[in-house]
Amino acid sequence: MINNKLKGMGVALITPFKEDDSIDFDALARIVEHQIKNGTDYLVVCGTTAETPTLTNEEKEEIKQFVINVNNGRVPIVYGIGGNNTKEIIHKIQHVDLNGVDAILSVTPYYNKPSQEGLYQHFAAIANASSLPIILYNVPGRTGVNMTAETTLRLANEFSNVCAVKEASGNFSQIDDIIKNKPADFMVISGDDGITFPLITLGAVGVISVIGNAFPKEFSRMVRLALEGDYENARIIHHNFTELIELLFVEGNPAGVKSMLAVMGYIENKLRLPLVPNTIKTYEKIRQVLNRL
Question: What is the pLDDT of residues 68-92, one digit of tens each?
Fold first, then answer.
Protein backbone atom coordinates (compact mmCIF):
# COMPACT_ATOMS: atom_id res chain seq x y z
CA MET A 1 0.00 0.00 0.00
CA ILE A 2 1.20 3.51 -0.85
CA ASN A 3 0.32 4.66 2.69
CA ASN A 4 3.07 2.52 4.19
CA LYS A 5 5.58 3.79 1.62
CA LEU A 6 5.03 7.48 2.37
CA LYS A 7 5.30 7.44 6.14
CA GLY A 8 8.44 8.87 7.69
CA MET A 9 10.93 11.17 5.98
CA GLY A 10 10.95 11.75 2.26
CA VAL A 11 13.69 14.02 0.89
CA ALA A 12 13.15 16.59 -1.85
CA LEU A 13 16.37 16.01 -3.76
CA ILE A 14 18.41 18.97 -4.96
CA THR A 15 19.86 19.11 -8.49
CA PRO A 16 23.64 19.51 -8.27
CA PHE A 17 25.21 21.60 -11.04
CA LYS A 18 28.76 21.96 -12.28
CA GLU A 19 30.39 25.34 -12.86
CA ASP A 20 29.45 25.12 -16.56
CA ASP A 21 25.75 24.87 -15.56
CA SER A 22 25.43 21.21 -16.55
CA ILE A 23 23.94 18.64 -14.17
CA ASP A 24 26.51 16.95 -11.93
CA PHE A 25 25.31 13.36 -12.04
CA ASP A 26 28.26 12.06 -10.02
CA ALA A 27 27.27 14.37 -7.15
CA LEU A 28 23.61 13.36 -7.53
CA ALA A 29 24.58 9.70 -7.21
CA ARG A 30 26.53 10.49 -4.02
CA ILE A 31 23.54 12.28 -2.53
CA VAL A 32 21.12 9.47 -3.41
CA GLU A 33 23.43 6.89 -1.81
CA HIS A 34 23.81 9.15 1.24
CA GLN A 35 20.02 9.20 1.59
CA ILE A 36 19.42 5.49 1.21
CA LYS A 37 22.24 4.46 3.56
CA ASN A 38 21.11 6.86 6.29
CA GLY A 39 17.43 6.17 6.81
CA THR A 40 15.52 8.24 4.24
CA ASP A 41 12.19 6.50 3.67
CA TYR A 42 11.53 7.76 0.12
CA LEU A 43 12.97 10.14 -2.48
CA VAL A 44 11.19 13.05 -4.15
CA VAL A 45 12.60 13.71 -7.62
CA CYS A 46 12.09 17.01 -9.45
CA GLY A 47 10.24 18.81 -6.68
CA THR A 48 10.64 22.55 -6.08
CA THR A 49 13.95 22.05 -4.27
CA ALA A 50 15.38 20.53 -7.47
CA GLU A 51 15.13 23.96 -9.21
CA THR A 52 12.70 22.39 -11.67
CA PRO A 53 11.64 25.73 -13.24
CA THR A 54 15.21 25.97 -14.58
CA LEU A 55 15.30 22.39 -15.94
CA THR A 56 14.25 21.37 -19.44
CA ASN A 57 11.79 18.51 -19.93
CA GLU A 58 14.67 16.43 -21.26
CA GLU A 59 16.75 17.13 -18.14
CA LYS A 60 13.84 16.22 -15.85
CA GLU A 61 13.45 12.92 -17.66
CA GLU A 62 17.19 12.27 -17.45
CA ILE A 63 17.28 13.04 -13.71
CA LYS A 64 14.23 10.86 -13.03
CA GLN A 65 15.68 7.88 -14.88
CA PHE A 66 19.11 8.37 -13.30
CA VAL A 67 17.72 8.39 -9.74
CA ILE A 68 15.52 5.36 -10.47
CA ASN A 69 18.57 3.48 -11.74
CA VAL A 70 20.80 4.44 -8.80
CA ASN A 71 18.03 3.68 -6.33
CA ASN A 72 17.42 0.27 -7.94
CA GLY A 73 14.16 -0.29 -6.07
CA ARG A 74 15.58 0.24 -2.60
CA VAL A 75 13.19 3.03 -1.53
CA PRO A 76 9.99 4.45 -3.09
CA ILE A 77 10.22 7.27 -5.65
CA VAL A 78 7.87 10.27 -5.83
CA TYR A 79 8.07 12.35 -9.02
CA GLY A 80 7.05 16.00 -9.30
CA ILE A 81 4.61 16.80 -12.10
CA GLY A 82 2.91 20.11 -11.45
CA GLY A 83 2.32 23.55 -12.89
CA ASN A 84 -0.30 26.07 -13.87
CA ASN A 85 -1.36 24.49 -17.19
CA THR A 86 -3.73 21.61 -16.43
CA LYS A 87 -3.70 20.20 -19.97
CA GLU A 88 0.09 20.15 -20.05
CA ILE A 89 0.27 18.28 -16.72
CA ILE A 90 -2.22 15.68 -17.95
CA HIS A 91 -0.21 15.30 -21.17
CA LYS A 92 2.96 14.65 -19.14
CA ILE A 93 1.25 12.12 -16.88
CA GLN A 94 -0.02 10.24 -19.91
CA HIS A 95 3.18 10.37 -21.98
CA VAL A 96 6.13 10.39 -19.55
CA ASP A 97 7.62 6.99 -18.67
CA LEU A 98 6.57 6.49 -15.04
CA ASN A 99 7.95 2.99 -14.58
CA GLY A 100 9.75 2.97 -11.24
CA VAL A 101 7.68 5.89 -9.88
CA ASP A 102 5.41 5.15 -6.90
CA ALA A 103 3.47 8.44 -6.67
CA ILE A 104 3.19 11.89 -8.24
CA LEU A 105 3.64 15.15 -6.31
CA SER A 106 1.65 17.97 -7.88
CA VAL A 107 1.89 21.56 -6.68
CA THR A 108 -1.02 24.00 -6.70
CA PRO A 109 -0.99 26.21 -9.82
CA TYR A 110 1.17 29.29 -9.40
CA TYR A 111 0.81 32.86 -10.69
CA ASN A 112 -2.64 32.53 -12.27
CA LYS A 113 -4.22 32.25 -8.78
CA PRO A 114 -7.28 30.02 -9.42
CA SER A 115 -10.30 30.05 -7.13
CA GLN A 116 -10.97 27.12 -4.80
CA GLU A 117 -13.29 25.67 -7.44
CA GLY A 118 -10.51 26.08 -10.00
CA LEU A 119 -8.09 24.24 -7.71
CA TYR A 120 -10.61 21.45 -7.23
CA GLN A 121 -11.25 21.08 -10.97
CA HIS A 122 -7.49 21.20 -11.70
CA PHE A 123 -6.67 18.33 -9.33
CA ALA A 124 -9.82 16.41 -10.25
CA ALA A 125 -8.67 16.39 -13.88
CA ILE A 126 -5.18 15.23 -12.82
CA ALA A 127 -6.60 12.49 -10.59
CA ASN A 128 -8.83 11.23 -13.41
CA ALA A 129 -5.82 11.13 -15.78
CA SER A 130 -3.42 9.34 -13.43
CA SER A 131 -3.10 5.66 -12.66
CA LEU A 132 -0.60 6.54 -9.93
CA PRO A 133 -1.38 7.97 -6.46
CA ILE A 134 -1.38 11.78 -6.28
CA ILE A 135 0.13 13.85 -3.47
CA LEU A 136 -1.31 17.36 -3.43
CA TYR A 137 1.22 20.09 -2.62
CA ASN A 138 -0.02 23.27 -0.97
CA VAL A 139 2.68 25.96 -0.67
CA PRO A 140 1.00 29.39 -0.83
CA GLY A 141 4.23 31.26 -0.05
CA ARG A 142 5.53 30.20 -3.45
CA THR A 143 2.38 29.85 -5.55
CA GLY A 144 0.38 32.87 -4.39
CA VAL A 145 -2.73 30.79 -3.65
CA ASN A 146 -3.73 28.76 -0.59
CA MET A 147 -5.74 25.57 -1.00
CA THR A 148 -8.16 25.53 1.91
CA ALA A 149 -8.86 22.55 4.13
CA GLU A 150 -12.33 22.32 2.57
CA THR A 151 -10.89 21.90 -0.95
CA THR A 152 -8.25 19.41 0.18
CA LEU A 153 -10.86 17.33 2.01
CA ARG A 154 -13.20 17.47 -0.98
CA LEU A 155 -10.48 15.99 -3.20
CA ALA A 156 -9.47 13.44 -0.55
CA ASN A 157 -13.04 12.20 -0.20
CA GLU A 158 -13.90 12.08 -3.90
CA PHE A 159 -10.76 10.55 -5.45
CA SER A 160 -9.29 7.33 -4.12
CA ASN A 161 -5.94 7.98 -5.82
CA VAL A 162 -5.53 11.38 -4.11
CA CYS A 163 -3.63 9.78 -1.27
CA ALA A 164 -1.97 12.67 0.61
CA VAL A 165 -1.28 16.36 0.90
CA LYS A 166 2.12 17.93 1.45
CA GLU A 167 1.09 20.92 3.55
CA ALA A 168 3.45 23.90 3.58
CA SER A 169 0.99 26.66 4.39
CA GLY A 170 2.30 26.98 7.95
CA ASN A 171 -1.32 27.39 9.04
CA PHE A 172 -1.70 25.04 12.02
CA SER A 173 -5.46 25.40 12.31
CA GLN A 174 -5.90 24.62 8.60
CA ILE A 175 -3.61 21.58 8.78
CA ASP A 176 -5.27 20.36 11.98
CA ASP A 177 -8.68 20.72 10.30
CA ILE A 178 -7.49 18.42 7.48
CA ILE A 179 -6.09 15.88 9.96
CA LYS A 180 -9.28 15.95 12.04
CA ASN A 181 -11.71 15.49 9.14
CA LYS A 182 -9.78 13.49 6.52
CA PRO A 183 -10.61 9.95 5.37
CA ALA A 184 -8.80 7.33 7.44
CA ASP A 185 -6.33 6.38 4.70
CA PHE A 186 -5.52 9.95 3.56
CA MET A 187 -2.14 11.21 4.74
CA VAL A 188 -0.98 14.66 5.81
CA ILE A 189 2.73 15.24 5.19
CA SER A 190 4.63 18.22 6.56
CA GLY A 191 6.14 20.49 3.93
CA ASP A 192 8.15 22.51 6.45
CA ASP A 193 11.14 21.03 8.26
CA GLY A 194 10.81 23.49 11.14
CA ILE A 195 7.28 22.45 12.13
CA THR A 196 7.47 18.74 11.32
CA PHE A 197 7.74 17.69 14.97
CA PRO A 198 4.62 19.53 16.18
CA LEU A 199 2.65 18.45 13.09
CA ILE A 200 3.43 14.79 13.80
CA THR A 201 2.08 15.24 17.33
CA LEU A 202 -1.16 16.42 15.67
CA GLY A 203 -1.32 13.41 13.36
CA ALA A 204 0.88 14.08 10.32
CA VAL A 205 2.66 10.97 9.00
CA GLY A 206 6.05 12.58 8.33
CA VAL A 207 7.77 15.17 6.15
CA ILE A 208 9.06 15.84 2.67
CA SER A 209 12.28 17.42 3.85
CA VAL A 210 14.90 19.84 2.55
CA ILE A 211 17.40 19.54 5.41
CA GLY A 212 17.28 15.77 4.95
CA ASN A 213 19.51 16.26 1.88
CA ALA A 214 22.36 16.95 4.31
CA PHE A 215 21.23 15.21 7.51
CA PRO A 216 19.16 12.17 6.55
CA LYS A 217 20.24 10.05 9.50
CA GLU A 218 19.54 12.64 12.20
CA PHE A 219 16.33 14.11 10.77
CA SER A 220 14.80 10.74 9.86
CA ARG A 221 15.52 9.63 13.43
CA MET A 222 13.63 12.64 14.78
CA VAL A 223 10.67 11.79 12.54
CA ARG A 224 10.77 8.13 13.53
CA LEU A 225 10.92 8.89 17.25
CA ALA A 226 8.00 11.32 16.97
CA LEU A 227 5.91 8.78 15.05
CA GLU A 228 6.65 6.21 17.77
CA GLY A 229 5.44 8.65 20.44
CA ASP A 230 8.89 9.27 21.93
CA TYR A 231 8.30 13.01 21.97
CA GLU A 232 11.00 13.81 24.52
CA ASN A 233 13.89 12.49 22.42
CA ALA A 234 12.34 13.73 19.18
CA ARG A 235 12.05 17.22 20.68
CA ILE A 236 15.76 17.27 21.53
CA ILE A 237 16.70 16.60 17.89
CA HIS A 238 14.08 19.11 16.70
CA HIS A 239 15.60 21.83 18.86
CA ASN A 240 19.13 20.94 17.74
CA PHE A 241 18.12 21.78 14.17
CA THR A 242 16.05 24.94 14.65
CA GLU A 243 18.90 27.40 14.05
CA LEU A 244 20.16 25.54 10.99
CA ILE A 245 16.66 25.24 9.49
CA GLU A 246 16.18 29.00 9.86
CA LEU A 247 19.46 29.61 8.03
CA LEU A 248 18.41 27.21 5.27
CA PHE A 249 15.59 29.45 4.14
CA VAL A 250 16.76 32.97 5.03
CA GLU A 251 17.89 33.55 1.43
CA GLY A 252 15.60 31.10 -0.27
CA ASN A 253 15.48 27.41 -1.09
CA PRO A 254 17.62 25.60 -2.23
CA ALA A 255 20.40 28.15 -1.75
CA GLY A 256 20.68 27.30 1.94
CA VAL A 257 20.85 23.53 1.61
CA LYS A 258 23.26 23.83 -1.32
CA SER A 259 25.57 25.94 0.87
CA MET A 260 25.33 23.25 3.50
CA LEU A 261 26.11 20.42 1.08
CA ALA A 262 29.01 22.43 -0.37
CA VAL A 263 30.50 22.91 3.11
CA MET A 264 30.14 19.15 3.65
CA GLY A 265 31.92 18.42 0.36
CA TYR A 266 29.06 16.80 -1.56
CA ILE A 267 28.51 19.38 -4.31
CA GLU A 268 29.75 22.60 -5.89
CA ASN A 269 27.84 25.60 -4.56
CA LYS A 270 26.16 26.28 -7.89
CA LEU A 271 22.57 27.28 -8.70
CA ARG A 272 20.92 28.16 -11.99
CA LEU A 273 19.70 31.69 -12.63
CA PRO A 274 17.55 33.37 -11.56
CA LEU A 275 18.63 31.68 -8.30
CA VAL A 276 22.04 32.52 -6.88
CA PRO A 277 24.12 31.11 -3.99
CA ASN A 278 23.89 32.43 -0.44
CA THR A 279 25.81 35.54 0.46
CA ILE A 280 29.19 35.00 2.11
CA LYS A 281 27.68 36.15 5.41
CA THR A 282 24.98 33.46 5.40
CA TYR A 283 27.38 30.84 4.04
CA GLU A 284 29.78 31.50 6.93
CA LYS A 285 26.95 31.29 9.48
CA ILE A 286 25.93 27.93 8.04
CA ARG A 287 29.54 26.74 8.14
CA GLN A 288 29.90 27.80 11.78
CA VAL A 289 26.68 26.03 12.84
CA LEU A 290 27.72 22.89 10.97
CA ASN A 291 31.10 22.92 12.71
CA ARG A 292 29.31 23.20 16.07
CA LEU A 293 26.98 20.31 15.24
Answer: 999 999 999 999 999 999 999 999 9
CA–CA distance, 231 with 48 (Å, rounded to integer)? 30
Burial 25-56 (b: 16+ CB within 10 A, else e): bebbebbbebbbebbbbbbbbbbbbbbbeebe
Exactly one of 7, 60, 92, 166 is catalytic; which is it?
166
Q: C-alpha angle with apex 243: 241 to 245, nearest 5 degrees?
A: 65
Give how far Cα 174 sits from Cα of 152, 157, 177, 178, 197, Å: 10, 17, 5, 6, 17
Is the CB of residue 279 less than 8 Å from the CB of residue 288?
no
pLDDT tens digit sequence for 178-199: 999 999 999 999 999 999 999 9
- 137 as an active site residue: the answer is yes
42, 110, 137, 266: the active-site residue: 137
Helix pair angle (255-263, 280-292), 10° resolution: 50
Q: pTM above 0.85?
A: yes
**Whole-number Å distance between alpha carbons of 61 and 50:** 13
